[in-house]
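Researcher: Please generate the 3D structure of the following complex. Treat every line as part of one assembly.
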Amino acid sequence: MSVLPDNAPLQFRDPVLARSMAATLARLMRELDRPLAIMHVCGSHEQAIARFGLRSLLPKALDLIMGPGCPVCVTDVPEVDEGVLIAQQGARIATFGDMLKVPGTVQSLADAQAAGADIDIIYSPKQAVDIARNTTQQVVFFATGFETTAVATAAVILDDPPPNFSVLSAHKYIPPAMEIVAGMPESRIEGFLAAGHAATITGADVFEPFVARHRIPVVIAGFEPIDILAATVELVELILAGTPRVVNTFPRCVTAKGNLAAQEQLWRVFQTVEGRWRGIADIPDGNLRLRDEFAHVDARKRFTIDLPSLWDFAPPGLARQCICGDIMAGMRNPKDCSLFNKECVPENPIGACMVSNEGTCKIWHLYGGVPDLEVTA
Amino acid sequence: MCLGVPGRVIEVSEFTATVDFWGVRKDVSLMIVDEPVSPGDYILNHVGFAIRRIPPEAVEETLAMYDMLMAGDAADLMAVDVRGEIEGAS
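Model: Done. Output below.
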């Protein structure tokens, strides 16, 4: 279905505008006259797309795919193992709630907690510092998230945290991951929607080198359904015209240069290093690690982390069937997975994409990927 | 967790703002935001930090979706995310 029926039960702020955008997309795709795949890289975008049934408005030939946009999902198994090993040494781990069930090689943080480890769920890096201020125990902030969240971690590190506080950084940096996905030989992605709030920090210009290298347009999108539709129209127009460039359709939050004060703090504390994103690839410059000047708050320097001691155990059999990596690279979708909604459900996740509220599989489990308009009422 | 949550600034003291989120008052750090913030402004809070002052002309359209999420099903993934962001302020 490419155009909304007049009685469509969607909760758009401006349904007339939404209908006209859907009609524009239908016209553009008729002009293009071939299948087209575009990718977004943000769990919040996928939530909005699925919740508001946006895929049901898109022409059939237009495939809007979620890429590696869930920071918890791309946290690699050995990174979880590091957290588990530190917890087993008696330190308190403070982390975001989504991290608890993410499978490690042998244990998740939830398993470690059940075995007696101290794990605190927090909603801000400041809360991890507060916990450290009120105990003599070692407190480790197991830090996940993209650059938007890494900025907050940098700010608490620069704000003189107590000596028993340290950071285990699993922060990731999105632009290099877009490079990898775009460069995969089997990739059919012809355009990217970039996440508005990450770009709030880095600025729209951060995507210019990517566009120059890959000749693929990037459109920065807000989070309302109408914002996402508008950005999709812009992206398809750029592809149709063959004029790849960066377009910012979210100027109320994103500027060309971004938040310079935040960038200064981010890059003072962190440097990019190559690292594995779970199931996808080794991504040059994809991981954010503390610079040497901040070794005194780096949990990797403070604790002895003997990963090979864990790795005599073979991973459980079901995990080998998990296709999270292919899903995050945009090659397949959850419905291609034999485990999805069978062995793998949010209560008992096999793969990380079913764990996090931002994981494609959990979002599709809850809302459905391409819901009927009736179902979204 | 990329969504953030907007709130109205009640009071500012040095690097902290007291912010109202749908009737809940919380402290938000101003260490990251790159523009001056005053009472009456709206900011976007992410994990306890203001990452952006929302331009006055954009406040209404920004709030619309959040109003709907806050009034809707509390188990909705986006609503859970927004409530988590409010929890991130202290």
